[in-house]
Amino acid sequence: xxxxxxxxxxxxxxxxxxxxxxxxxxxxxxxxxxxxxxxxxxxxxxxxxxxxxxxxxxxxxxxxxxxxxxxxxxxxxxxxxxxxxxxxxxxxxxxxxxxxxxxxxxxxxxxxxxxxxxxxxxxxxxxxxxxxxxxxxxxxxxxxxxxxxxxxxxxxxxxxxxxxxxxxxxxxxxxxxxxxxxxxxxxxxxxxxxxxxxxxxxxxx
Length: 205
Prior knowledge:
- This protein is of the alpha/beta class and 205 residues long.
- The protein folds into 2 domains: 4-12 and 133-190; 21-129, Rossmann fold.
- It has helices spanning 4-11, 21-33, 47-55, 72-78, 97-105, 135-149, 155-167, 172-190, and strands spanning 37-40, 61-65, 84-88, 109-113, 126-129.
- Helix 4 (72-78) runs parallel beside helix 5 (97-105) and helix 7 runs antiparallel to helix 8 (172-190).
């Protein structure tokens, strides 16, 4: 079972969003200008992390997670006057006519969605595309996280974590979950409470 604190630290937003510098720069420009935009990409490609980083420092932001406010009524209850609306996980909302009209009326807004659905209420908004991570990018993300958090993992662990994320569509969250699992297993093994495995490579600093 994964240690909750370790999992929180591994999945926490990093100081720097690797391989998303161009997208983050554009999203910050749009948020600063008070323009509406859509962040689109597969699961685990950093969409939520990017939006949160892009609106950091912007006053009057209202953040709504549509995974927990999925209906028109629940979304409407969460709304209040704001200078920028952020609708996260909008793909999970129950897009009735009333909800679509409500979302269309919100200005300005940043909306997080994943393909391949088409959202007519978001037509005309600039899209910030978040492509799947490559294996090399996932490997570097895992390596940075392991070094920064001083995780008990080696090069083999990092590559396995990157491979797991890559096999799930370039998903960084899967890669980091796998990295956390291997860190826990290594910690248990080193303490004598877990099963032995072949001698590991050099632990990352």
